[in-house]
Amino acid sequence: MKKTLITYLFFILAMSLFITTRIYAGKVYADEKKASATEPVAADLEKDKPATPITPTPVIQEEEGPVSPVKDDNEALWHGTIKPVAEFEGLIPRIVCWGDSLTVSLDGKSAYPDILRNLSGCEVVNYGVEAENTSMIAMREGGMRVNVKATVIPAEPSLIPIFLRTENNGHVFFLDNGEGGINPCSISGIEGELQKLNGSYYFKRSKKGERIAVEENTQFKTHGITDAKMGDVLVIFAGTNDLPDSTTVRNIIGLERKMLEAAKCDKYIIVGLTYAGGIPEIDSVNEAMNKEFGDHFVDIRKYMLNYGLKDAGITPSDQDIADIKKGEIPSSLRSDYVHGNKHYHRLLGEQIYRRMVYLGYIPNSNLLEDEEDI
């Protein structure tokens, strides 16, 4: 009986402890649930706290129009009032243009020498011959001497064979692609005409006279040589057919210097090269020429890339924009992959005119626009 009573009391004590524990646990659970309903969790704290201001990445706006990879830091030479570094004095000179197909005039009015004639009021002589490199042009001009092998010119005008070689015993290319100031020519002071028949050269004197024995290595003089005049202004646009690089451009520069020496000329314009597709190092080539000739050098490619379309009044096409980004003269200014069209030649003529006025070679005729806008 006693053992049964002890067991019963132990049972009542255990039940009381169990009930107390459950009541306390329920209270804790209720408190936690209440807290979860009123206090924010970490995610809510992140969501509700003030946001950190974000500075947007600036949008880089492209410049209006195509952007040239060739920068121009002397825009004043191309536009605005011309302020000559030397005032023009004396008689209006003659302008003589030496070059290749980029100088040739097909109609007598659209090539840059024609534009230059109209703007300047000067006599302009065009000695452009297609497909010629700088050496060939220099042969016609006299910068590279051409000699005649010893022969005899008879008294009567008759066709005689002659043998021509450069001063370095190189081949001569007269009359291969055009006249370009060859005739009338002269040998030992005898004026005549040069002909090329079946790959060989022949000379025929113009007038009857004395029989002349021509000495070995006598200079063959083209009309371009004998007709050169003191005071002529030379324009030399050569080198495209040489396809020069940054090293071989020195050959072109050397020949152009010899051309100026042969003409005894200190008034001249050297036109830079434009055919980037065939001259990968064209920037270095033009920079070398600019360094050599300074203000006498017209970097027409730089001008065409930066201002050509605008000055021609042409809205750039998609192809023009692609051309300019590649450093090519825009298609709207070209007639093919290398030659310029009428817009190109007009702009080139205007820029050569401006440079001649700037250098004091010719008077300002104010034919471009009003004086304040030139």
Radius of gyration: 42 Å
Helix content: 25-40%
What's the story with the biggest beta sheet? 7 strands, antiparallel
User: In angstroms, what separates the terminal alpha carbons?
Assistant: 135 Å
Provide the number of structural domains.
Answer: 2
Specify the CATH class of the largest domain: Alpha Beta
Quickly count the helices. Answer: 10
- Series of secondary-structure elements, N-terminal to C-terminal: HHEHEHEEEEEEEEEHEHEHEHHH
SSE layout:
Blueprint lengths: L1 H37 L3 H7 L45 E6 L12 H9 L2 E6 L5 H8 L4 E3 L2 E3 L6 E3 L1 E3 L18 E3 L2 E8 L2 E6 L6 E3 L3 E4 L1 H4 L6 E5 L11 H14 L5 E4 L10 H12 L3 E2 L1 H13 L5 H9 L15 H18 L15
Parallel strand pairs: 1-2, 1-12, 12-13, 13-14
Antiparallel strand pairs: 3-6, 3-11, 4-10, 5-9, 7-8, 7-11, 8-9
Helix pairs in contact: 3-10, 4-6, 8-10
Search tags:
374 residues, alpha/beta, Rossmann fold, 2 domains, 7-stranded antiparallel β-sheet, 14 strands, disordered N terminus, disordered C terminus
Structure description:
This protein has 2 domains: 75-142 and 228-373, SGNH hydrolase (Rossmann fold, 3-Layer(aba) Sandwich); 144-221. Helix content is 35%, strand content 16%. The longest helix is centred in the N-terminal third of the chain and has 37 residues, at 2-38. The protein has a 7-stranded antiparallel sheet. The chain has a 5-stranded parallel sheet with strand order 2-1-12-13-14, sandwiched between helices. Strands 4-10 form a two-stranded antiparallel ribbon. It is α/β, with parallel strands linked by helices and 374 residues long. The protein starts with a helix and ends in a 15-residue tail after the last helix.
